[in-house]
Structure formats: structure tokens, C-alpha cells
Design brief:
mainly alpha; Growth Hormone, Chain: A; 15 helices; about 0% strand; globular; hexuronate transmembrane transporter activity; transmembrane helix; MFS_trans_sf; membrane; transmembrane
């Protein structure tokens, strides 16, 4: 079907993009303030890893709950609740006076931020035909990278000019500005008066899923479906790697290459700018394969296999002799992660009907967050051990090897559980199996 007149669906993507930008800006602030907070509160690497784990545990629980809630109340109200909670929590970091206090507010932040992706993926499933969903997801998901680019410039400047408390307050308040635009411009396609009939028809042009009803889908039903487990394992094995990039890369560059985190950090800006290219390019690539006649499931899996291979060179970071060699290798891996992310999120809307998408994304996101809880335990213990031995860089080198092969492992697990990624018919008596 030819492109329709009107492009209101891209306005929706713009809203999702800015929400995701704010989401990642707020969550990354603590990583950039880590050296200053370590000095003020005498944190060890293990202390910091526990604060990260508090966020991860709450984020995991929140994803599971928000996935269900958003499938029931819709993306609009789900997003409103989510961003109010996380923006308030981000600002209240400024009143923390102890490690426990930071842990508490990180947990509340994680709970609020967990609503972002279930709401965004559901919105994309509602507003885009399958052929455009990966690109739309890649565009809004690139907001994670823009947030990560803005943070290394914005946060050190606020820290130097005002202090760490103000860094939390200013960045946290941005979410309330976005909320105004979301309230004005977002409705589902059926309720949106700004949407033309031609574009409405285009959005539903390849809608071959089962007829949707208002009935909710139980977690028990979803857990009996192999496609759910494909998504769960893909997220569990790869999400923790991105969180490691967010929360530990600043201190890696500081400890290994003496990067001054009190100043705007060009190496971090380069890394996260590369991820923007990866996110949009990854979404485009599988869409390109589909337009060339490749079946949807094969296009997604081919693209994801390519991205899994592109992460492997990060294992060579241990041989970097200057910061820019390390930046190049890490940038490639981080870009490949975001390309992978754009496609793995889209597999959920490829395989599941719209009424179950947020629940599936929530379950898979919870699995990724559980990995995000477990991985920091290893990271903290490993880095403290190598630090005591006087070789902190050696600890990071081990972690980069783990990062390098995580995506290939994730791809193989997804292939085992859903080799053809068939659409799920939730009305059928038996779940779709493997052919």
C-alpha cells in the first residue's frame, strides 16, 4: 500500500522519542555523579552496585505491573502515571543523605520509569503497520541515546555550577514539561480527531491478527507460550549489558583513561551518539529486508544476528592503548545493542496481538531487569576484587568479554524457542508451538 496523505503517526513517535530521552536522562544522572557521590558518601563499588540493584529490582517489578495496567487503562493514562512518579522520584534524590536514601529513591525511580517501554511499544503497535514498527521503535528508542548524549554535557555543567542536588532537581523537572504535550496530542487512532481516514486505513493495512476483544490476557496463559519465552530470554541476556554501559562506562573511562567527569565528556557523547545511529539504522534494516520481500520473522532474525556479531569486537577493548580506540570499540557495541533493542521490542508486536503487547513487553522487560539485578552483583564484586589487586582495568576487560558474547547467546535462545516467530492466536485452545 502506498504512503497515505498525512503523517500524524510520526507526531506520536516524536512524543515517544522525547519521553524516552527524559527517561534515560533521569536514570543516567547518578552514573555521571558517581565520583562526586563516592567522595561525599564514601561508597565502595559494592555500595554503588547495590544502589543500581535497587533501581533494577524495582524496575523489574514495575515492568510486570505496568505491562498489565497499560493493557487495561491504555497508553495515555499509563504514561501519565509513569512520568509523574519517575519525575518526582528523580527530583527527590536531592534530599538523600545516605546510601540507603539513594537506594530508596532509585527504587521509586525504577518503579516509575518502568512504564515507559510498555506504553511506548503498545503505542507503536496501535499507530503503525508491521512494516513500519521497527523503524518507529528505532526512532523512539534512539531517545535513550539522546538522553545519554545530553547527560554527559548537561550534568557535569550543573554539578560544577550549582552542585549535585541541583543536577537531580533540574533534570527531574523536565518530565512535567513533556506531560503537557502528551495530554494535548495523544489519543488512540480510533479517538484521534486529527487523524485522517486515509492514514487510519494505512495504519491497519496489514492487521492480520486475531479479532481483539476487551478481555484481559492472564500471565499464566502468556507463560505457556513459547514466543513469550523467546522474548524473555532475549531480554534477560542482553538488557544488563546496556545498563552496564549506562552506569559504569563513565567510571571506566575515568579510572582507565583519567577522564575528568566534572567537565563535559566528549568520549561519552561519541559513544551515545553512535547508539542513536544504531537504533534508527537497526529499525530501518529489518524494514528494508521486509520491503525487499523477506518474510517478517526472517527479516527480524537476520538483522538481529548481524547486530549480535557486531557486539563481539568489544572484547578487543582490553588491548586499547588510548581512550579513542576504546571509544570506537565500545561505540560499535553500544550502537549494535540499540539496533538489537529496536528489533527485539518489535518482535513482541509481531508475534502478539495488541491487547497483549504491553503485558508481554512488561514480562520481558522484567526478565531483563532481573538480569540487571544479577549482573551488578558480579560487576561490583569483580571490580572490587581487581581494585584490591591494583588492576581495576583488568576487571573491566573481563566484563567486556561477557558483553561481547551475550547477544549471540540471546539470539540462539530466541531461535530455539521461536525459530519462525509465528503470530500467537490467544483464542486458540493450544499455544503456538515450534515448527
Amino acid at each position: 500500500m502506498n504512503q497515505p496523505k498525512g503523517g500524524y503517526r510520526w507526531t506520536i513517535v516524536a512524543l515517544l522519542f522525547f519521553a524516552t530521552t527524559i527517561n534515560y536522562l533521569d536514570r543516567q544522572v547518578i552514573g555521571l555523579l558517581k565520583p562526586a557521590l563516592e567522595s561525599e558518601f564514601s561508597w565502595t563499588e559494592t555500595d554503588y552496585s547495590r544502589i543500581v540493584m535497587a533501581f533494577s529490582a524495582s524496575y523489574a517489578l514495575g515492568l510486570l505491573l505496568f505491562g498489565r495496567v497499560i493493557d487495561k487503562i491504555g497508553s495515555k493514562m499509563g504514561y501519565i502515571i509513569s512520568i509523574i512518579v519517575w519525575s518526582i522520584a528523580a527530583m527527590l534524590h536531592a534530599v538523600a543523605t545516605s546510601t540507603i536514601g539513594f537506594g530508596v529513591w532509585r527504587a521509586v525511580l525504577g518503579l516509575g520509569e518502568s512504564g515507559n517501554f510498555p506504553a511506548a511499544i503498545k503505542s507503536v503497535a496501535e499507530w503503525f503497520p508491521k512494516r513500519e514498527r521497527a523503524l518507529a521503535t528505532g526512532i523512539f528508542n534512539s531517545g535513550a541515546n539522546i538522553g545519554a548524549v545530553v547527560a554527559p554535557v548537561m550534568v557535569p555543567w550543573i554539578l560544577g555550577a550549582y552542585g549535585w542536588q541541583e543536577a537531580f532537581i533540574i533534570t527531574g523537572a523536565i518530565g512535567f514539561i513533556w506531560l503537557i504535550f502528551w495530554w494535548i496530542y495523544y489519543e488512540s487512532p480510533a479517538k484521534q480527531p486529527r487523524l485522517g481516514q486515509e492514514e487510519y486505513a494505512y495504519i491497519h493495512s496489514d492487521n492480520d491478527e486475531e479479532v481483539t476483544t476487551g478481555e484481559s490476557v492472564s500471565w499464566g496463559q502468556l507463560f505457556r507460550i513459547r514466543q513469550t519465552w523467546a522474548f524473555i530470554l532475549g531480554k534477560f541476556l542482553t538488557d544488563p549489558i546496556w545498563w552496564f554501559f549506562l552506569f559504569w562506562l563513565p567510571s571506566y573511562f575515568a579510572s582507565t583513561f583519567n577522564l575528568d567527569l566534572k567537565k563535559p565528556s566528549l568520549p561519552l557523547v561519541v559513544v551515545y551518539t553512535a547508539t542513536t545511529i544504531g537504533s534508527i539504522g537497526g529499525g530501518y534494516l529489518s524494514g528494508y529486508f521486509i520491503k525487499r520481500g523477506m518474510p517478517i520473522f526472517r527479516a527480524r532474525k537476520t538483522a538481529m544476528f548481524i547486530f549480535a556479531l557486531l557486539v563481539i569486537p568489544i572484547t578487543l577493548a582490553q588491548f586499547a592503548t588510548n581512550i579513542w580506540q576504546a571509544v570506537a570499540l565500545i561505540s560499535l557495541a553500544a550502537a549494535a545493542h540499540q539496533a538489537w533493542s529496536a528489533n527485539i521490542f518489535t518482535t513482541a508486536s509481531d508475534m502478539f496481538p495488541k491487547r497483549a503487547v504491553s503485558s508481554v513487553v512488561g514480562i520481558g522487560g522484567m526478565a531483563g531487569s532481573v538480569g540487571g539485578i544479577l549482573f551488578p552483583i558480579l560487576v561490583g564484586a569483580l571490580l572490587d576484587s581487581y581494585k584490591e589487586a591494583g588492576n581495576l582495568t583488568g576487571g573491566y576487560n573481563v566484563l567486556f568479554i561477557i558483553c561481547g558474547f551475550a547477544y549471540l547467546a540471546g539470539w540462539l535462545c530466541m531461535h530455539f524457542f521461536a525459530p519462525r516467530m509465528e503470530p500467537v492466536n490467544l483464542s486458540a485452545a493450544e499455544p503456538v508451538g515450534v515448527r
